[in-house]
Amino acid sequence: MVTLRQLHALATLANTGSFTATADALALTQSAVSVMIKELEQQVGVMLVERGRTVRLTAAGKTLCETANRVLADIHRTVAGLRSVGELQGGRIRVAVGPLTAATFFPRALALFRARHPLVAVEVLDVPVEQASQRLAADEVDVAIGSPGTSPALATMLRTEPLVRDRMHAVYARGKAPPAPAGGRRMKWRALQHAEVILTDRVSGQWREVFLQLSRAGVALNAVQEVRLYSTALEMVRCGLGMTLLPAFAARHLDAAHYDVRAIEHGDTRWEVHWMMRAAAAPTAASEALREAVIEALGSR
Length: 301
What we know:
Layout: H1 4-16, H2 19-26, H3 30-44, E1 49-50, E2 56-57, H4 59-87, E3 92-97, H5 99-103, H6 106-116, E4 121-126, H7 129-137, E5 143-146, H8 152-157, E6 158-166, E7 168-173, E8 187-188, E9 196-200, H9 205-216, E10 222-227, H10 230-238, E11 244-247, H11 248-251, E12 259-265, E13 271-278, H12 285-299
Parallel strand pairs: 3-4, 3-5, 8-12, 9-10
Antiparallel strand pairs: 1-2, 5-13, 6-13, 7-11, 7-12
């Protein structure tokens, strides 16, 4: 009876062209590989391999090898699928998220994931945005959502995928916003030059990139307060102490009874959010399911 081990040996031999290399790849002795191929030839009744200075498959060997590759690929997919089902029947996934993500679209993504996979525990670590990628690199979490930062060392350790690249919006207390530009046009950055701006931790995460781009454009904002938490900044805005800036995905979550929002025309200035995993880690069924839930939550903004 033909076995999977024999088919695997034949497929590996076709790739390596050498009994020695095949033995190394399969962690077997060369004689063990040779015996397996001879037994396979006896079972199918034809020569499969031309032996000489180089090893080549015969026409029959190539035909059987094509079938072997399909069979082995099918088995690999089936086993991977069964493992995926098992992963979604229990276990846990650890996620680090920046504060803006945690306060906007991520709770909806988490609700979608839990509704579909109630047996998978999700541990959420909400941290300053610059720490999300650091916690991931340190193997404290399995996935991070936020900014990958600018560290070359981190860049080599992480695999990132952009989830959103949003325009910035100006946020005012209700009734405090300047008149909207005619024709539905966006505000210019320069319209904010003399505004009293409340910033949230400008030295971290995406703010660094935003301010670098504004500096290149010759725009300087008048920061009257700088706080750590977005909830603090927004309450200050609501009380009329100034205005603030948010990307579109966050601005859409604001209560229109308390805030006015104006889109800003600002060239290439964007706020990016990334899905991040360690470069050496393979995606799991749970991480892929959570990623799909995040994308769906973003799409329903």
